[in-house]
Amino acid sequence: MIAPWAQELQEAKNSQSRAINARSESIHEKPTFRSAFRATRCLIPATGYYEWATALGKYSPKQPFYISARDGKQLAIAGIWSSWRAPNGELVESSSLITQEAHGELETIHSRMPVFMPVDRWADWLNPKTHNVEQLQSLMWVEHPELNVIARPVSSAVNSVANNGKELIEETPLGAPETLF
Predict the structure, then answer these.
(1) Would you call 56 helix, strand, or coil by DSSP?
(2) What is the number of alpha carbons within 13 Å of residue 22 lying toward its C-beta?
(3) How far is CA 173 from CA 16, 68, 117, in A?
(4) For residue 135, what pLDDT is reported?
(5) Can you tell me whether residue 161 is helix, strand or coil?
């Protein structure tokens, strides 16, 4: 998301690279996100997403995983969006995914995960008249969100933008988990 106070296009692009994700715990407080959180929320559809293991878990750091809905349907990721007008008059739309602390098996891969929005909350989440922070935060809270997704290790071929194709989401067997002891 482009920071609302950006004055120049290059400054806007630079701020965008730092605001890809918004933390659910503090989204309502951070100047970059708080206005959009109260007024311009969205759902970002995804068939899945990649996450790379960090040194925090049981997997080799940088091992890629493809995470998708357990039932094979699309994921609805909570997000926010905004419009920013460049000095030349160009209107630039941008968005950020909302993340939360990872749960269950996902926390053995990475410390954060997207906020998945259940279908029965979509209308309330997208309602531009909903401004109450406590209500919006309660919409983002789901008990055991990790139960709705499955994480599969995939080839490191996903690390190159030159690679594209359905083979990138095929599961790759892993060796034994790496641990220090």
Answers:
(1) coil
(2) 32
(3) 36, 17, 30
(4) 96
(5) coil
* In contact, 121 and 139? CB cutoff 8 Å: yes
Residues 116-159 have pLDDT tens digits of 999 999 999 999 999 999 999 999 999 999 899 999 999 999 99
85's enclosing H/E stretch is strand 75-85
Nearest to 149 by CA among 121, 109, 97, 178: 109
Q: Write out pLDDT tens, residues 10-65.
A: 777 666 556 789 999 999 999 889 999 999 999 999 999 999 998 766 778 789 99
The residue type of 97 is: L
pLDDT given for residue 179 in this prediction: 55
Query: Could you give the CA distance from residue 162 to residue 42 in angstroms, rounded to a whole number?
Result: 30
Rg from Cα positions in the chain: 18
Task: Enter the tokens of residue 52.
Answer: 């790379």
Phi-psi region of 165 (alpha: psi -120 to 50; beta: other; left: phi over 0): left
Domain 9-45+75-144 CATH class label? alpha beta
